[in-house]
Every structure is written in C-alpha cells, then in structure tokens.
Design brief:
By secondary structure, the chain is mainly α. The protein has 7 helices and 3 strands, in the order αααααβαβαβ. A 3-stranded parallel β-sheet has the order 1-2-3. β1, α6 and β2 form a beta-alpha-beta unit. It is globular and about 45 Å long. The relative contact order is 0.13.
Length: 135
Amino acid sequence: MSWLTRYILRIFLAGVATSPSIGGVAWSEAPPSPAIKASVAPGRAGEIDERVEALLRKMTLAEKIGQLEQSDTVANLAGNSSDEAAKEFVDRIRRGEIGSLLNEVDPTTINKLQRVAVGESRLGIPLIFGRDVIH
C-alpha cells in the first residue's frame, strides 16, 4: 500500500487513534502537521502506529472504502425517510460502509448511530459527524 493511501486511511481512522485511551495520531510515512505532531504524547507515537497498522490489517477492502464514504443523514437522502431506508442506512453503518455523516444534528440520532458504529460493527470504528455549511 502506498504512503499516500496509508496517509488518507489514517486521516479517516483518526477517530480511533484520538480516543482518550490512546492519545493522538502520528504518521510514519509522511510528515505530520505541527498540530498532529503536538497532540501525540511523548513516547506514544510508536504505540499508535502499531494500533493503526493492526487495525488496517484487520480491515477488508470494502471496510477501507467504507471509511472513505461520507453520507448525508438518512432523512435528507433524496427526501426519503422511510423506515426501510432508515433500516438500510443503519445496516450500512453496521457493515462499515459509511465512515462519516453530514448534517445530522439530533443528539439522540447521533448517539444511536454512534452506538451502532462502535458497538455493532465488526471493528468498532466510530463515525465522524460534520456539517456542510459552506457553499
């Protein structure tokens, strides 16, 4: 796998590497930004790299591609908010086919979807939530 592919995957897996239990994120193949470099506790960069590499080895190609998938919340997808569409959306999260969501603002829904991603998916990778506010 090229250094660029590893770099991109690590960006999307930053949610795992920045959890309070393991500190910040570091990249060995490409120079990290000063902000990322400063967030890594001294002596922890090797441990974080090992955990990231172990997670990447466990991931299937579909799961890696899924981490690159950014979707809008199910209620905004083509105006379709049916129960069946919502169930399929949650199933995609459970299968690791969605890595981040835009425009979900309801805390109850965010918590529910995050519980699915962390507790019901094979690898437990958290979702990244964001807002698409600049056009």
